[in-house]
Specification:
Elements: H1 11-25, E1 29-34, E2 42-48, E3 51-58, H2 61-79, E4 88-89, E5 98-100, E6 103-109, H3 121-132, H4 149-159
Antiparallel strand pairs: 1-2, 2-3, 3-6, 4-6, 5-6
């Protein structure tokens, strides 16, 4: 999990983020605190006048387009009644994401708890079954080829100089 940097937790940065979120999402921000969720980028817990949200900011250029496209799938799943995935909150103008300081921002319904890799398999499958039963043919999702493309991409990312620090 990536730590929030000193720059990102500065009062000036948080004030700018607060103003940005208030404008883009049309809610009044009461409090922003770092949230220990996710494996890259910034994750913030944001308390507002209309509820509590997670705000995820992805600054990794390589991943941003994939991140944007994934929000369509998340919105589709929650629209179809999948309730164990936090819903995406749309911006005031109806978008699933917006841009801030070179990062892609998405806001999700807040879910209490911590992120863990220790998940009971039986519970995992009970959550996956309704997802796999959805008709996703209309979604623009990447298809897996089971070739070496993923390994080749991993290797190129590993060698890339602009990759985020681990």
């Amino acid at each position: 999990m990536q730590e929030i940097s000193i720059r990102e937790s500065s009062r000036a940065y948080l004030d700018r983020l607060q103003g940005f979120l208030s404008n883009e999402y049309a809610f009044k921000v009461w409090e922003i605190t770092a949230a220990p969720r996710g494996f890259f980028g910034e994750t913030w817990k944001v308390r507002t006048d209309v509820g509590c949200f997670f705000v995820k900011i992805d600054r990794w250029k390589y991943h941003q387009e994939s991140y944007r496209r994934s929000l369509n799938a998340v919105a589709y799943m929650t629209d179809q009644g999948i309730s164990h995935i936090p819903a995406v909150r749309r911006t005031a103008d109806g978008q699933l994401s917006c841009d801030f300081d070179g990062g892609v921002v998405a806001t999700f319904a807040y879910e209490e708890g911590i992120q863990t890799e220790d998940y009971p398999v039986k519970q995992l499958f009970s959550h996956l079954i309704p997802i796999y039963q959805l008709d996703a043919s209309r979604l623009d999702l990447e298809k897996e080829s089971f070739g070496t493309r993923t390994l080749d991409r991993f290797r190129s990312l590993w060698d890339a100089e602009e990759r985020p620090a681990a």
